[in-house]
Amino acid sequence: MRHLDDNTIRDYVLEEVSESEQMAAEDHMADCPECVERVRAFRYAQEHFDSLWNSWTAAEHGRVTKQWRLAMAVSEIVQEHPNLIKQARQWLSDFKEEIGLGVKVLIDKRNQIVSLARAVMPLSYRFQLQPVHRGVGGPEEIAELEKQLNRGSELLAEDRPEEAAQEILQAVTIDSRSLQSATSEICHKERRILQTTADSAIGRVSVKYWTQPDQEDPFIVVLLPKETNTKAVASVFDKVRVSGESYLLAEFKGVSDGAYTLYIGLASPP
């Protein structure tokens, strides 16, 4: 069953559909509890984030669409954890002002490849891919492998996931082992802040955040698909302490093939 896309749900809730479109949407929802839940999440977001919602309507359509898709994902978390409503409002307000961190993710299970790239972050922050395989061939092969992986990351950052996938497939010809996992880090003033790991074999994306002395800790991360007919999902950070190291951890499991953006909101600007 093909679900209602995000634009259809938005127009339905805002009553910006024709009578025939409304009937078609309601006929679909009669047999689709998932789309019913998405409509409910949208209405919840409108009700609880109305001041932010109204301020978004003057923006261009593409930006507004992204904002309310994120709001829907955040609202689902808030319904499960009502005590997070204040933080959720702050998260959405920060996103509107482009405060926070973002990492782009490419998952391709069929070809067993993956890539990570920079999305949104302060200019003073540095994004870097972390080598997964070391000692592959001679120095020239290693240099060429890193060049193609970095090029794939650059293409993904430019919203060109298909070209990024082709570049990474070329890297596989250098390293016969499938490059099915990738790790990236975001640092600030030589201090590690965020580590993202993606694994295409099992469709898992994990995010580690190290507490910073000058910032409040984030409470959620949202995974936003590039395809508008796929819903955004959110994950709450948990505190982890392993071998004397403390950090926050959030994970997404069973992620389908496609291009995504991870949004990690920070409660105060850097």
Q: What does this protein look like?
A:
With 270 residues, the chain is α+β, with helices and mostly antiparallel strands. The chain has two domains: 6-96, no CATH class; 101-264, no CATH class. Helix content is 40%, strand content 27%. The protein has eight helices and eleven strands. The chain has helices at 6-13, 19-29, 33-48, 50-56, 61-80, 85-96, 139-157, 161-174; strands spanning 101-108, 113-118, 126-130, 181-188, 191-199, 204-209, 220-225, 233-236, 238-242, 245-252, 258-264. The strands form two sheets. It has a six-stranded antiparallel beta sheet, with no helix packed on it. Strands 2-1-11-7-8 form a five-stranded antiparallel beta sheet. A hairpin with a 2-residue loop joins strand 9 (238-242) and strand 10. The N and C termini lie far apart (44 Å).
Q: Which structural category fits the helices and strands?
A: alpha+beta
Q: Quick one: biggest sheet?
A: 6 strands, antiparallel
Mean pLDDT: 81
Number of strands: 11
Number of separate domains: 2
Shape verdict: globular
Strand content: 25-35%
State the distance separating the first and last CA atoms. 44 Å
If helices are DSSP runs of H or I spanning 4 or more residues, what is the number of helices? Answer: 8
Task: Please mark out the parts with pLDDT under 50 across 5 or more consecutive residues, or reply none.
Answer: none
Strand order of the largest sheet: 3-4-5-6-10-9
Fraction of residues in helices?
A: 25-40%
Rg, nearest Å? 20 Å
| Order of H and E elements | HHHHHHEEEHHEEEEEEEE
